[in-house]
Amino acid sequence: MIEFYNVYADIDTKIILSNISFRLVKGEFAYIIGPSGAGKSTILRMIYMDLYPKEGMIIIDKYSSAKIKKSDIPYLRRGLGVIFQDFKLLHDRNVFENVAFAMRVTGTKTPEIKRRVFKVLAEVNLSNKRNHYPDELSGGEKQRVAIARAIVNKPFIILADEPTGNLDRANSYEIMEILERINRQGTAILMATHDEHLIKKYPHRMLYIKNGTMVER
Predict the structure, then answer these.
(1) Which residues contact 16 (CB under 8 A, 6 or more apart)?
(2) Which residues constitute the domain of residue 110?
(3) Rg of the chain's alpha carbons, rounded to an integer?
């Protein structure tokens, strides 16, 4: 489903990743761990083709970094759900519209949008907040909106970039319980984190990045 072959990446001529190779299979949950600046976010950006490898190749589903056309990238991204540390919600739209926006850009019909948005808001326990705006929500609630937005188009994988980095311990556990439930339903998850507490409480395969190289732990 996701394959990295001898991938090198640089940003502003600085080498960030060196000779990275790994595979993620359908329905798997894996962590990318390592210190800040190690390249965890870079790997996620390369999966949704925001960055391309300097050398090597990445295969995501049926798409290859060596052959993908710019016009195909939106179609690739429809199969990916992305969750960011800083939520990236639209502050001029309420919870319902923040989640619905991910479907509107794909041309989904309004009845299907309503059905799916109500369903995913129920899954993240936010049905009663659907008319609230982001500034009226707690940090944990904002991240649950972000999760709902990420899963509303039924992606085959969730890419989570430090999704608990701005949350307290209780909210972090709540977010992880939701991600675990999503994974049990068959969606793969690749999560960048440096939170050792979460890794111990919710153990999964670990891909460790240090000095731009990867080892499994």
Answers:
(1) 9, 10, 39, 42, 212
(2) 91-149
(3) 17
Whether 98 is covered by a domain: the verdict is: yes
Cβ neighbours of 80 (radius 10 Å): 21
- pLDDT tens sequence across 138-194: 999 999 999 999 999 999 999 999 999 889 999 999 999 999 999 999 999 999 998
Label residue 211 exposed, middle or buried (CB < 10 Å: 0-12, 13-18, 19+): exposed
How many alpha carbons lie under 13 Å from residue 133 in its C-beta half-sphere? 5
Select from 61, 39, 44, 25 the least CA-distant residue to 215. 39
- Extract the tokens encoding 177: 């319980």
Torsion-angle region of residue 9: left (phi > 0), alpha (psi -120 to 50) or beta?
beta
d(CA 9, CA 202): 30
Would you place residue 216 in the very low, low, confident or very high pLDDT band (cuts 50, 70, 90)? confident
Domain count, the chain: 1
What 3-state DSSP class applies to 138? Answer: coil
The rounded distance, in Å, linking the Cα atoms of 149 and 142 is 11
Cβ burial 92-107 (10 Å sphere, 16+ → b, else e): eebbbbbbbbbbeeee
Q: Does any domain span residue 145?
A: yes
Residue 141 placed within a domain:
yes
Q: Is 140 helix (H, G, I), strand (E, B) or coil?
A: helix
